[in-house]
UniProtKB/TrEMBL annotation:
Pfam families: AP_endonuc_2 (PF01261). This is Xylose isomerase. Residues 31-280 form the Xylose isomerase-like TIM barrel domain. GO terms for molecular function: isomerase activity. Keywords: Isomerase. The keyword Isomerase applies.
Length: 290
Protein backbone atom coordinates (compact mmCIF):
# COMPACT_ATOMS: atom_id res chain seq x y z
CA UNK A 1 0.00 0.00 0.00
CA UNK A 2 1.23 3.48 -0.86
CA UNK A 3 0.82 5.34 2.42
CA UNK A 4 2.24 8.75 1.45
CA UNK A 5 3.28 10.46 -1.78
CA UNK A 6 6.11 12.97 -1.48
CA UNK A 7 8.47 15.05 -3.60
CA UNK A 8 12.09 16.07 -3.22
CA UNK A 9 13.50 19.51 -2.56
CA UNK A 10 16.81 19.39 -4.40
CA UNK A 11 20.13 20.35 -2.81
CA UNK A 12 21.38 22.41 -5.75
CA UNK A 13 18.11 24.31 -6.08
CA UNK A 14 18.33 25.50 -2.48
CA UNK A 15 22.03 26.33 -2.31
CA UNK A 16 21.56 27.45 1.31
CA UNK A 17 18.53 29.68 0.67
CA UNK A 18 15.92 29.59 3.44
CA UNK A 19 13.58 31.73 1.33
CA UNK A 20 13.74 29.24 -1.53
CA UNK A 21 13.07 26.47 0.98
CA UNK A 22 9.96 28.21 2.30
CA UNK A 23 8.75 28.85 -1.24
CA UNK A 24 9.07 25.21 -2.26
CA UNK A 25 7.43 23.92 0.93
CA UNK A 26 4.40 26.13 0.32
CA UNK A 27 4.26 25.19 -3.36
CA UNK A 28 4.30 21.43 -2.74
CA UNK A 29 1.83 21.68 0.12
CA UNK A 30 -0.58 23.57 -2.14
CA UNK A 31 -0.17 20.99 -4.91
CA UNK A 32 -1.36 18.26 -2.55
CA UNK A 33 1.74 16.23 -1.70
CA UNK A 34 1.78 14.42 1.63
CA UNK A 35 5.47 14.90 2.40
CA UNK A 36 8.71 16.44 1.16
CA UNK A 37 12.25 15.07 1.04
CA UNK A 38 14.62 17.55 2.68
CA UNK A 39 18.37 17.80 1.94
CA UNK A 40 20.43 19.07 4.90
CA UNK A 41 23.32 19.78 2.51
CA UNK A 42 21.09 22.30 0.74
CA UNK A 43 20.19 24.06 3.99
CA UNK A 44 23.68 24.43 5.51
CA UNK A 45 22.55 22.87 8.80
CA UNK A 46 25.67 20.67 8.97
CA UNK A 47 29.15 22.18 8.77
CA UNK A 48 32.33 20.16 9.30
CA UNK A 49 30.28 17.15 10.39
CA UNK A 50 28.34 18.98 13.11
CA UNK A 51 24.88 20.49 13.40
CA UNK A 52 24.76 24.30 13.27
CA UNK A 53 22.20 25.03 16.05
CA UNK A 54 21.13 28.47 14.84
CA UNK A 55 20.39 27.20 11.33
CA UNK A 56 18.61 24.13 12.67
CA UNK A 57 16.39 26.25 14.91
CA UNK A 58 15.36 28.51 12.02
CA UNK A 59 14.60 25.55 9.76
CA UNK A 60 12.64 23.81 12.51
CA UNK A 61 10.49 26.91 12.97
CA UNK A 62 9.72 26.98 9.24
CA UNK A 63 8.72 23.31 9.27
CA UNK A 64 6.41 23.74 12.25
CA UNK A 65 4.23 26.00 10.09
CA UNK A 66 3.80 23.28 7.45
CA UNK A 67 1.23 20.46 7.49
CA UNK A 68 3.56 18.25 5.43
CA UNK A 69 5.44 15.23 6.74
CA UNK A 70 9.17 14.97 6.10
CA UNK A 71 11.86 12.60 4.96
CA UNK A 72 15.57 13.51 4.84
CA UNK A 73 18.02 12.71 2.05
CA UNK A 74 21.52 12.17 3.40
CA UNK A 75 24.39 13.89 1.55
CA UNK A 76 25.23 11.97 -1.64
CA UNK A 77 29.04 11.79 -1.12
CA UNK A 78 28.70 9.94 2.21
CA UNK A 79 30.20 6.47 1.66
CA UNK A 80 30.16 4.00 4.54
CA UNK A 81 32.48 1.66 2.62
CA UNK A 82 35.30 4.21 2.92
CA UNK A 83 37.81 4.75 5.73
CA UNK A 84 36.89 8.43 6.09
CA UNK A 85 35.74 9.10 9.64
CA UNK A 86 33.85 12.16 8.36
CA UNK A 87 31.34 9.98 6.49
CA UNK A 88 30.05 8.28 9.61
CA UNK A 89 30.11 11.59 11.47
CA UNK A 90 28.08 13.37 8.77
CA UNK A 91 25.50 10.60 8.51
CA UNK A 92 25.20 10.59 12.31
CA UNK A 93 24.59 14.36 12.27
CA UNK A 94 22.02 13.85 9.50
CA UNK A 95 20.15 11.42 11.76
CA UNK A 96 20.20 14.05 14.52
CA UNK A 97 18.80 16.60 12.06
CA UNK A 98 16.04 14.19 11.02
CA UNK A 99 15.14 13.50 14.63
CA UNK A 100 15.00 17.24 15.41
CA UNK A 101 12.42 17.86 12.68
CA UNK A 102 10.45 14.63 13.24
CA UNK A 103 11.36 13.11 9.87
CA UNK A 104 10.15 9.63 8.96
CA UNK A 105 13.36 8.43 7.29
CA UNK A 106 16.96 9.25 6.43
CA UNK A 107 18.05 8.13 2.95
CA UNK A 108 21.53 6.63 2.62
CA UNK A 109 23.17 5.75 -0.72
CA UNK A 110 24.82 2.34 -0.48
CA UNK A 111 28.49 2.36 -1.48
CA UNK A 112 28.79 -1.39 -2.09
CA UNK A 113 28.31 -2.46 -5.70
CA UNK A 114 28.34 -6.22 -5.32
CA UNK A 115 32.03 -7.12 -5.76
CA UNK A 116 34.47 -5.90 -3.09
CA UNK A 117 33.79 -7.97 0.04
CA UNK A 118 35.92 -5.70 2.23
CA UNK A 119 33.78 -2.72 1.26
CA UNK A 120 30.67 -4.74 1.98
CA UNK A 121 31.96 -5.65 5.45
CA UNK A 122 32.88 -2.03 6.19
CA UNK A 123 29.45 -0.68 5.18
CA UNK A 124 27.64 -3.26 7.30
CA UNK A 125 29.84 -2.54 10.32
CA UNK A 126 29.30 1.20 9.99
CA UNK A 127 25.53 0.76 9.69
CA UNK A 128 25.55 -1.34 12.84
CA UNK A 129 27.46 1.44 14.63
CA UNK A 130 24.55 3.76 13.91
CA UNK A 131 21.83 1.44 15.21
CA UNK A 132 21.97 2.66 18.80
CA UNK A 133 21.45 6.23 17.59
CA UNK A 134 18.58 5.10 15.36
CA UNK A 135 16.90 3.50 18.36
CA UNK A 136 17.44 6.56 20.55
CA UNK A 137 16.17 9.01 17.92
CA UNK A 138 13.43 6.74 16.53
CA UNK A 139 14.62 7.42 12.97
CA UNK A 140 14.48 4.84 10.17
CA UNK A 141 17.56 4.66 7.91
CA UNK A 142 16.68 3.53 4.38
CA UNK A 143 19.44 2.17 2.14
CA UNK A 144 19.14 3.19 -1.52
CA UNK A 145 20.44 1.56 -4.70
CA UNK A 146 22.41 3.83 -7.02
CA UNK A 147 24.50 1.93 -9.59
CA UNK A 148 23.95 -1.52 -8.11
CA UNK A 149 21.18 -4.09 -8.29
CA UNK A 150 18.50 -4.19 -5.63
CA UNK A 151 19.70 -7.66 -4.64
CA UNK A 152 22.96 -6.06 -3.48
CA UNK A 153 21.38 -3.32 -1.34
CA UNK A 154 19.04 -5.96 0.07
CA UNK A 155 22.09 -7.97 1.17
CA UNK A 156 23.39 -4.92 3.05
CA UNK A 157 20.05 -4.31 4.78
CA UNK A 158 19.64 -7.98 5.68
CA UNK A 159 23.16 -8.14 7.13
CA UNK A 160 22.62 -4.99 9.21
CA UNK A 161 19.74 -6.93 10.78
CA UNK A 162 17.95 -4.08 12.52
CA UNK A 163 14.27 -3.09 12.31
CA UNK A 164 15.22 0.57 11.72
CA UNK A 165 17.53 -0.18 8.78
CA UNK A 166 15.32 -0.79 5.76
CA UNK A 167 15.45 -0.91 1.98
CA UNK A 168 14.80 1.95 -0.44
CA UNK A 169 14.36 1.16 -4.13
CA UNK A 170 15.07 3.93 -6.61
CA UNK A 171 13.23 2.80 -9.75
CA UNK A 172 15.05 5.25 -12.01
CA UNK A 173 18.47 4.13 -10.82
CA UNK A 174 17.48 0.50 -11.22
CA UNK A 175 16.28 1.03 -14.80
CA UNK A 176 19.69 2.50 -15.66
CA UNK A 177 21.49 -0.37 -13.91
CA UNK A 178 19.65 -2.96 -16.02
CA UNK A 179 20.16 -0.81 -19.16
CA UNK A 180 16.47 -0.49 -19.89
CA UNK A 181 15.72 -4.23 -19.68
CA UNK A 182 12.08 -4.28 -18.48
CA UNK A 183 12.14 -7.94 -17.48
CA UNK A 184 15.24 -7.49 -15.30
CA UNK A 185 13.69 -4.36 -13.79
CA UNK A 186 10.55 -6.25 -12.80
CA UNK A 187 12.55 -9.22 -11.47
CA UNK A 188 14.56 -6.95 -9.16
CA UNK A 189 11.40 -5.16 -8.00
CA UNK A 190 9.69 -8.47 -7.30
CA UNK A 191 12.65 -9.45 -5.15
CA UNK A 192 12.97 -6.17 -3.27
CA UNK A 193 9.52 -4.63 -2.84
CA UNK A 194 8.36 -6.84 0.07
CA UNK A 195 11.36 -5.53 2.06
CA UNK A 196 11.06 -1.89 0.95
CA UNK A 197 9.91 1.02 3.11
CA UNK A 198 10.49 3.86 0.63
CA UNK A 199 10.33 4.07 -3.16
CA UNK A 200 11.87 6.80 -5.34
CA UNK A 201 10.32 7.36 -8.76
CA UNK A 202 11.46 9.41 -11.76
CA UNK A 203 11.84 8.58 -15.43
CA UNK A 204 14.73 8.06 -17.86
CA UNK A 205 15.60 6.14 -21.04
CA UNK A 206 17.65 3.30 -19.54
CA UNK A 207 20.92 4.61 -21.01
CA UNK A 208 23.64 4.65 -18.31
CA UNK A 209 26.02 7.58 -18.47
CA UNK A 210 28.95 5.15 -18.13
CA UNK A 211 28.08 3.77 -21.59
CA UNK A 212 28.02 7.19 -23.24
CA UNK A 213 30.70 9.61 -24.35
CA UNK A 214 31.62 11.83 -21.41
CA UNK A 215 30.62 14.97 -23.32
CA UNK A 216 27.02 13.70 -23.56
CA UNK A 217 26.55 13.08 -19.85
CA UNK A 218 28.79 15.72 -18.27
CA UNK A 219 26.46 18.62 -19.11
CA UNK A 220 22.86 17.87 -18.18
CA UNK A 221 21.31 20.04 -20.91
CA UNK A 222 23.11 17.89 -23.50
CA UNK A 223 22.23 14.68 -21.66
CA UNK A 224 18.54 15.47 -22.15
CA UNK A 225 19.10 15.75 -25.91
CA UNK A 226 20.63 12.29 -26.09
CA UNK A 227 18.51 10.70 -23.36
CA UNK A 228 21.59 9.70 -21.38
CA UNK A 229 21.95 9.11 -17.66
CA UNK A 230 20.02 9.83 -14.47
CA UNK A 231 17.75 12.56 -15.84
CA UNK A 232 15.06 12.61 -13.10
CA UNK A 233 12.27 13.19 -15.60
CA UNK A 234 8.55 13.40 -14.79
CA UNK A 235 6.76 10.09 -15.25
CA UNK A 236 5.95 9.42 -18.89
CA UNK A 237 8.77 11.43 -20.45
CA UNK A 238 11.13 8.44 -20.42
CA UNK A 239 10.70 4.71 -21.03
CA UNK A 240 10.17 3.16 -17.60
CA UNK A 241 7.02 0.97 -17.70
CA UNK A 242 5.38 2.52 -14.64
CA UNK A 243 2.05 0.74 -15.19
CA UNK A 244 3.82 -2.61 -14.80
CA UNK A 245 5.97 -1.27 -11.97
CA UNK A 246 2.94 -0.20 -9.98
CA UNK A 247 1.16 -3.51 -10.51
CA UNK A 248 3.96 -4.93 -8.37
CA UNK A 249 3.93 -1.94 -6.01
CA UNK A 250 0.24 -2.44 -5.25
CA UNK A 251 0.79 -6.14 -4.60
CA UNK A 252 4.06 -6.10 -2.65
CA UNK A 253 4.87 -2.66 -1.22
CA UNK A 254 3.87 -0.92 1.98
CA UNK A 255 5.40 2.50 2.52
CA UNK A 256 6.27 5.95 1.12
CA UNK A 257 6.65 6.94 -2.54
CA UNK A 258 8.79 10.02 -3.31
CA UNK A 259 8.85 11.70 -6.72
CA UNK A 260 12.33 13.06 -7.41
CA UNK A 261 12.36 15.93 -9.92
CA UNK A 262 15.56 17.95 -9.72
CA UNK A 263 15.17 20.61 -12.44
CA UNK A 264 12.11 22.78 -11.75
CA UNK A 265 13.09 25.23 -14.49
CA UNK A 266 12.30 22.51 -17.01
CA UNK A 267 9.68 20.39 -15.29
CA UNK A 268 7.70 22.40 -12.72
CA UNK A 269 4.67 22.56 -15.02
CA UNK A 270 4.69 18.72 -15.27
CA UNK A 271 4.53 18.11 -11.52
CA UNK A 272 0.74 18.40 -10.96
CA UNK A 273 0.03 15.90 -13.76
CA UNK A 274 2.73 13.56 -12.46
CA UNK A 275 1.21 13.68 -8.97
CA UNK A 276 -2.18 12.73 -10.42
CA UNK A 277 -0.53 9.84 -12.29
CA UNK A 278 1.04 8.62 -9.07
CA UNK A 279 -2.26 8.76 -7.22
CA UNK A 280 -3.99 6.85 -10.01
CA UNK A 281 -1.24 4.24 -10.27
CA UNK A 282 -1.34 3.75 -6.49
CA UNK A 283 -5.09 3.27 -6.37
CA UNK A 284 -5.86 1.09 -9.41
CA UNK A 285 -7.99 -1.90 -8.49
CA UNK A 286 -9.46 -0.27 -5.41
CA UNK A 287 -6.24 -0.13 -3.38
CA UNK A 288 -6.47 3.14 -1.48
CA UNK A 289 -3.68 5.16 0.08
CA UNK A 290 -3.72 5.18 3.87
Amino acid sequence: MVRLIGINIDTKRLSGSEEKFKEELEKFECLGFDCVEIPPAGLDVIFNGEIVPERLNRIAQVLKRSSLKFTVHGPDPVDLTSDRKEDLQILSATIDFASSIGALTVVHHSGWFGKDEEKKRREIENLKRLCTKLERTNVCLVVENTKQLVEHTLQIVTAANHPQVKLLIDVGHLFLRVKGDEQKLLEQLTLGLPHTFELHVHDNFGKPEDDAESSLSRELHFAYLYGVGDLHLPLGLGKIPFERVFELVRERFDGIVVLEINDLNRFERDIPETLEKLKALSNVGGVQRA
